[in-house]
Every structure is written in C-alpha cells, then in structure tokens.
Amino acid sequence: MQPLFEHRAQFAGYETRLLELEGDGPPVILFHGFSDSADTWRFTLDALARRDRRAVAVDLPGFATAAHLKPGEVLPQLDAFARALTEHYAPDGGAIASGNSLGGAVALRLAQNPELGLAGIVPVAPAGLDMARWLSIIEREPLVRALLASPVPIPRRILTDVVGRIYRTIAFASPRKVDPKMVSLFASHFGERADVARFLATGRRMMPELRDPFELEKIECPVLVVWGKQDRMVHSGGAQRVVNALPETQVEVIERCGHCPQVEAPDRFAELLLSFPEPLVRAA
Q1: pLDDT tens string 162-213
Q2: Angstrom distances, CA of residue 270 to CA of 24, 30, 84, 277
Q3: Which of 196, 96, 85 is nearest to 139 (CA)?
Q4: Given Cys at both, which of 51, 58, 189, 249 links 223, Cβ 3.0 to 4.6 Å?
C-alpha cells in the first residue's frame, strides 16, 4: 500500500498543497469543490493507495492553503493551473481527472483540450450545467448570516464549529452519518471570519462565468458523470446536458447521497473511479 505524502509545489504561478500517492500507471488527478480542499479526497486516496494507483489531490487557487486568486476572471485561472498540473504529472497523457462541484467544472473544461491526452474524466456533481443554486443556498443559510453579521470577533474554535455544522447541513443527504474527521478537515481551512466572506465573494465573482462555461463538443475522452440523488447544491438533471453533447457518457446517480459522494458514499465512489474507463460493475 502506497503511503500518502503531503508537500507543496507551484503550478502556473500558484503555490499550493498536494496530497500525493506514488503508485503505478497514469495518475488520477483530483480537484475539489468551492470552499473545499484536497482533504475531501482522503477516502478516495486511501482506496487508490490500496490498489497501488498513482494519484494527486490539490488545493485549488483561492481556497484552503493555496495562493489567492489574481484579479480578473476565475475560471481561466483555474484552467491554467489544472493544465500545468496535468502536464507535470502526465506529460505523455493518459491521466484521469476527477473533480467535485467547481472541481467537476474544472475537469470538464480540462478535457476540452484534447492535446492533453486524458484517458477520461469523472466530474462529480459539476457546477455550470444547470441553473446554479449552490451559492444562494449557502448565503441563505441562517448560520452563515449570523456568522457574517456578528458585531464581535469570533474565536477560531467557534468559527470552525459553525462552518462544520453548515457543511454537514447543506452538503449531505445524511449529515449525522458523515465522518466527523472529514467535517473537521473541511472546517480547519477557515481560520477567520474573513475567509468566509472571501469565499462568498469569489463565488459571486464566478457566477456569470458559470452560466455557460463549457464547449462539451470538444471533449474526446470517455466521461463518467457521478451525482448524489439528494444533491441540494447542483441538480442531477444537469447530467443530461453532457449526455446530449456526448451520447456515450456514462452517468451514475448514487442513492441516499448528497453533493459530495466522495465523502458520503466513499466506497461506491472509489469503486466507480477504479473501474473507469472500463465497463462499470453495478452494485447489487
């Protein structure tokens, strides 16, 4: 079983944190969602390690421990970062890219560059395929409003507790069943209330870009779209847009699962990822 090691590197001018496995074969490259981090893939990385599979998860620019975004449009910055990362880890092609939510959008846009020679992509509840609801859901959450409106500084311990409760409430179909360690890892990247405000500002900045962010007809590699059936953040009907553009797309909707299948249904998600792009083995 390959050990997971954490280190820092720079791609396209953005310093970031990486969680990496030195396994065999072309790498699996993992992109997290809005306000999340590379830690969201720890269950997936554990499954890949048991199969001796090479993989890397990163903090995207603007989030967690990565460098802040620069002025201007957000998606082109993430595109440049994702391309540089892919070219570094798979200079001869063959990588599989997967991403959740915003990271799913990054994976889809990455696959629009056929010269990268991707072996396939696995976008998980990707943003940008239907009318976006995720930002309004976050901003309407009473705990978020209370957090931002507080007239006094909030101690970090209380801040991370509140962020963790918000994460449990909006991202999952069964909040009580989510591993507390994953909730703690998510919340740990919110050091102060200003981080919450900055992430929300980034979300508002991205909204116009996510209205029509894809040229799906340019994608030539195999595609597997994964969604949780009880996803509140991004509706699973968005998968039909990918199928309409790319009829051979495989779609897997996971029952009793919300916006983050890699956390809430880790065994099923790992099974799907490890079998792709081979034919899927359906659960009984």
Answers
A1: 999 999 999 999 999 999 999 999 999 998 999 999 999 999 999 999 999 9
A2: 17, 12, 25, 13
A3: 196
A4: 249
Spatial contact of 221 and 111, defined as CB atoms under 8 Å apart: yes
Domains and CATH numbers, the chain: 4-132+214-275 (3.40.50.1820)
Q: Beta-carbon neighbour count of residue 89 at 10 Å?
A: 18
What's the rounded Cα separation, in Å, for the pair 33 and 128? 12
Q: Which residues contact 213 (CB under 8 A, 6 or more apart)?
A: 75, 105, 109, 128
- Integer Cα distance of 34 and 102 in angstroms: 5
pLDDT digits (tens, 9 = 90+) for 203-225: 999 999 999 999 999 999 999 99
DSSP collapsed to 3 states, 187-208? HCCCCCHHHHHHHHHHHHHHHH
Query: Could you tell me which of 56, 82, 58, 60 has the C-alpha nearest to residue 2?
Result: 56
β-bridge pairing 4-11 and 14-21: antiparallel
Do the Cβ atoms of 172 and 263 come closer than 8 Å? Answer: yes
CB 56 within 8 A of CB 26: no
| Nearest alpha carbon to residue 31 among 49, 44, 47, 46 | 44
From residue 235, how far is each of 122, 131, 133, 276 by CA, in Å?
Answer: 17, 8, 8, 23
Question: What is the amino acid identity at position 83?
Answer: R
